[in-house]
UniProtKB/TrEMBL annotation:
<dbReference type="GO" id="GO:0007340">
    <property type="term" value="P:acrosome reaction"/>
</dbReference>
<dbReference type="InterPro" id="IPR001314">
    <property type="entry name" value="Peptidase_S1A"/>
</dbReference>
<keyword id="KW-0645">Protease</keyword>
<dbReference type="InterPro" id="IPR018114">
    <property type="entry name" value="TRYPSIN_HIS"/>
</dbReference>
<dbReference type="GO" id="GO:0006508">
    <property type="term" value="P:proteolysis"/>
</dbReference>
<dbReference type="GO" id="GO:0004252">
    <property type="term" value="F:serine-type endopeptidase activity"/>
</dbReference>
<dbReference type="InterPro" id="IPR043504">
    <property type="entry name" value="Peptidase_S1_PA_chymotrypsin"/>
</dbReference>
<keyword id="KW-1015">Disulfide bond</keyword>
<protein>
    <submittedName>
        <fullName>ACRO protein</fullName>
    </submittedName>
</protein>
<keyword id="KW-0720">Serine protease</keyword>
<dbReference type="Pfam" id="PF00089">
    <property type="entry name" value="Trypsin"/>
</dbReference>
<dbReference type="InterPro" id="IPR009003">
    <property type="entry name" value="Peptidase_S1_PA"/>
</dbReference>
<keyword id="KW-0378">Hydrolase</keyword>
<feature type="domain" description="Peptidase S1">
    <location>
        <begin position="1"/>
        <end position="238"/>
    </location>
</feature>
<dbReference type="InterPro" id="IPR001254">
    <property type="entry name" value="Trypsin_dom"/>
</dbReference>
Length: 238
């Protein structure tokens, strides 16, 4: 995340690191705990489904450190059946863990947005992840980062000077209009969270899908909105 700062342990207790086995395990995507055995993430993270993967829960570091961190294997990966890697449509997926997580101050599942929540009216929104903190860098950040972002009007994001019609009705876009703060390489599939003004609770409103460059002017981060996929999520979880 460009323009980010280190997240404190337990600040975002639902974020997980999905890691792929190479020589060692390496971070490929983030995800969000939505139930004790389920992680919501992005479909584009699973183009190669054969690789051995694990999920790191409860830590701010990308390597298991101390008793807070839990390591889980994956039982099932469910990629949305209508995902298209060219148009980025339906960029959403679920991961079922082999065992339920042990809840703690550092491991909790996130609140999901109810159908009546007016997302565009929410002003206190955050992204978090282990992605690059410099544009053009492929280096992951070893410590979890966080940054506040501002939701942008989807029509504006889809207009001619911006994404030129490439966005879908169920996308959200967020950054600061002048750029400088936004998700970057390695932040894929992480959570976009906004605080409900009435309850004070943070809800998961989006999953990081894509962007053009990192934090460029008129190139906000693009997210898959959670609300339109609520029924799909519940159906997959059975």
């Amino acid at each position: 995340i460009l323009g980010s700062k280190n997240a404190q342990p337990g600040a975002w207790p639902w974020i997980v690191s999905i890691q792929k086995k190479e020589k060692n395990f390496v971070h490929v995507c983030a995800g969000t705990l939505i139930a004790q055995q389920w992680v919501l993430t992005a479909a584009h993270c699973f183009r190669n489904t054969r690789a051995k993967r694990r999920v790191l829960v409860g830590g701010t570091h990308l390597v298991p450190k101390g008793p807070r961190t839990q390591v889980h294997n994956i039982r099932t990966i469910i990629v949305h059946e209508d995902y298209d890697n060219v148009t980025h449509s339906n960029d959403i997926a679920l991961v079922e863990l082999d065992q339920p997580v042990q809840c703690s101050p550092f491991v909790k599942h996130v609140c999901m947005p109810n159908a009546s929540l007016q997302i565009q009216e929410l002003t206190n929104c955050y992204v978090s992840g282990w992605g690059a903190t410099k544009a053009g860098s492929a280096r992951k950040t070893p410590v979890l980062q966080e940054a506040r972002v501002k939701l942008q009007d989807l029509k504006k994001c889809n207009s001619s000077g911006w994404y030129r019609g490439a966005l879908h009705p169920y996308n959200l876009c967020a950054q600061y209009p002048k750029g400088g703060i936004n998700t970057c390489q390695g932040d894929s599939a992480g959570p976009l969270l906004c605080q409900d003004t009435s309850s004070g609770q943070f809800s998961l409103v989006g999953v990081t899908s894509r962007g053009r460059g990192c934090a460029r002017t008129r190139r906000p981060g693009v997210y898959t909105a959670i609300q339109p996929f609520g029924d799909w999520i519940l159906a997959q979880m059975g």
